[in-house]
Design goal:
alpha+beta; globular; 7 helices
Length: 216
Amino acid sequence: MDIFNTQNPMRVHLAEHMLLIDAQIVNSGPTRRPACVLIWSSTDRVFTFSNAYGNLLFEGRAALVAPDVERRLKTIDSNIFSLNIEPGHPHFLALSQLKFEHGFLPLDIHQFMPFSDAFRSHLENADYVGVEAMAFELTNSLLPQPTKLHQRDTRIDTLLPLLDSSSPVELSSLAQRLHLSKDRLSHLFSAEIGMPLRSYILWRRYRRAMLGAAIG
């Protein structure tokens, strides 16, 4: 998840495998997470990504960031949208397989113009169903067309809610429940989700902890 130091209020919507942030001024510390991050400016201002040493990695108005790329984001008065597509989202696997250059894929800002006002309106009206529908439409538009949505193995769809339990996860019992060996379960999960099973479990624990801290 993005943790931003902002000088202005921001709007946030956290969904099951998606996070949308709308912020005017952003100056983040080094960030790395297992999500495809679609980020764009809704004004004519650019934003920059740099590494931990301050070296410029990307400058522009729209980009897709690959998973696990460490970077710092800086923008002033560009009204940034940051759409995080996380492992488990129907589009995560396809987005993560796009061709990135050093972890970034520059995009045409004009592709996002119809979405900015709509996202902001949905957020202002707390229309989160609308936010998620728009996010699905936008991310789908980035995939090569025609793209057939991957039909995930139903056993993985059964597994995902179980992994979000606050109780300790026993992989052997989960594998037995799905009539798989632990090795086969791990292989199937990585192939279907795009992330190792144990790494996914740790990510979801971190995500719940951050959400709990925000609520608390």
